[in-house]
What we know:
- This protein has 608 residues and is mostly helical.
- The chain has three domains: 28-242, Orthogonal Bundle (Clc chloride channel), CATH 1.10.3080.10; 260-455, Clc chloride channel (Orthogonal Bundle); 472-607, CBS-domain.
- The protein contains 23 helices and six strands.
- It has helices at residues 2-21, 26-65, 92-111, 119-129, 137-151, 159-176, 181-199, 203-212, 224-242, 260-290, 300-314, 323-330, 336-355, 363-384, 394-408, 411-422, 428-441, 462-471, 494-502, 524-528, 542-545, 558-568, 590-607; strands at 480-481, 488-489, 508-512, 518-523, 572-576, 584-589.
- Helix 2 (26-65) runs antiparallel to helix 6, helix 3 runs antiparallel to helix 11 (300-314) and helix 5 (137-151) runs antiparallel to helix 6.
Amino acid sequence: MAKIRFKRLIIRGRNLLTDFAKNFEFKFTGRWMLYSLVIGLVAGGGGILFFYLQEAIELISLKGAAGFYPPLPGGESGGSESHALPSMFNWWFFIIPTVGGLISGWLVYTWAPEAEGHGTDGVIKAFHQDRGKIRARVPIIKTLASAITIGTGGSAGREGPIAQIGAGFGSFFASKLKLTDQDRRTMVVSGMAAGIGSIFRSPIGGALFAVECLYKDDMETEGLVPAITSSIIGYTVYASVFGWNTIFTTGDYSFQNPLELVFYGVFGLLCALLGIFYVKIFYGFHEKVFAPLKIPKHFKPAIGGLCLGTLAFFFPYILGSGYGWIQMAIDGQLAIKLMIIAAILKVFATSFTISSGGSGGIFAPSLFIGGMLGGAFGGLAHNLFPDIVTQPTAFVLVGMAAFFAGAANVPVSMTIMISEMSGSYGLLVPLIFTSTLAFFVTRKWSIYSQQLKNHAESPAHRGDLIVDILRDIPVKAAFKAKPDLPKIANNLPIQRILPLFADREEDCFPVINKEGEITGLLSMTTLRAVIGEEGVGSLIVAEDIKTKLDTVSPNDNLQQALGHFLKTKYSSLPVVNTEDPNTVLGFLTYHDLITAYDEALIKWSTDN
């Protein structure tokens, strides 16, 4: 008796658990949690490997051979201590970036040409145009080439290579698991988020950047949750090795004077104008200087490196990512004139490095440009209006966010990223205000050439466009009303049904019972299957061969009608009166639906 009760208790408990589980999607959630975990672990590990590799190359080249020791940001053991400006006229600057460009160019154009330039653009292109597919060798070549480029002084950053490391693994992982294109794209976004969130120590900002940088006016919100999960895992792995501190150390900034918004507004416009100049110079060098050169592409990064080295011979602070100089600007250790010159020269230094085909990201150089512009503007504003602009170095952080928010069309993510990278949340209002203003002014331009305007332009969401267009078209706008349609009685034999189809273009009619209610449909296809059998003409009636009733109403939309077509496989559907479902107004054919869609698509294309 006790055993029976125990078994009943187990069965009851199992049933309760089963009923409880029906309220959740454990299979879906568990699957994506696992995917995000693996992607985050690999991307975080890739970030660690890339950092050490870049540091090793820099130790041998810039520090060892040239004796050039750039300052470090506060979170990487640099900070508030005074740092002397580097000595000028170092002849090694002609050699080291040139050799770095030569090796990087050979690696990229020999093994993975798609790894040239700033890697984030390659990830964006793979997402939109290549079904999320990234060749497995691309992250490896990008890592090596970018580490060499940055380690030998190239004006580039870590964002591009680490984005391709994470995204490349996400693509590889999805392909090995034989997932759908949609899932592969989501894993590419998750990988990019994990890489950027880890190496910039910005888990939330990295995830937002990954879903925002794909479009100018849109976000890939479907991938946001997996991206956040992967980014947090990647950040945790990376920070476990390098510490949990932020990249930059800052003072106690705050926004308390409404009059400062006037200065932030003017500064936002300056960031936008410099951002447009940056994009034009960047792509101008690529299209008008390096692309027309009649030499193998392998050598073009070396020429870019030589141009950079020539500039660095006179102004060495434009070498590398420049985080240490940003830290000095935050600490108020740089002169206004120096920061103005540095901001302008960094535009050209970055163009020499990456527009020539060199490998590296454009995020760090962009932060340098915006930070220097902010430091100079804040210093000038403080000198002129000391009672209003009381924290001039706050403009360094705001400039970092606003400049790149405008140049790359990423206002939301940049606000969060700069807050996380600096640990300073007291400037959220001016960060958002200035970044949004810069974004509005520069929407026509973007440093990411593969960035699309919105979902409608992306092949990844072509199916969404079809659904959106069909959803806006009612059935009544597509079908032809025919009130004289014949109705077939349930007991009508097929030999008397055939003549009904003879003079009609329709291939389907409703079947009704003696009360006049529609009970099913009878198509010519069904009739053909039985009329060849001898002697059945008077024995088989409509009731015997009718198919399941499925109708649409005039107020339904074509997206709903498409669902009915796909479910039933019918070539036409009866359109019934909304108030009286037994009154057939006509038939909507699949051809009617396609015609209406084509016309709407042409109109949409013309309007846009």
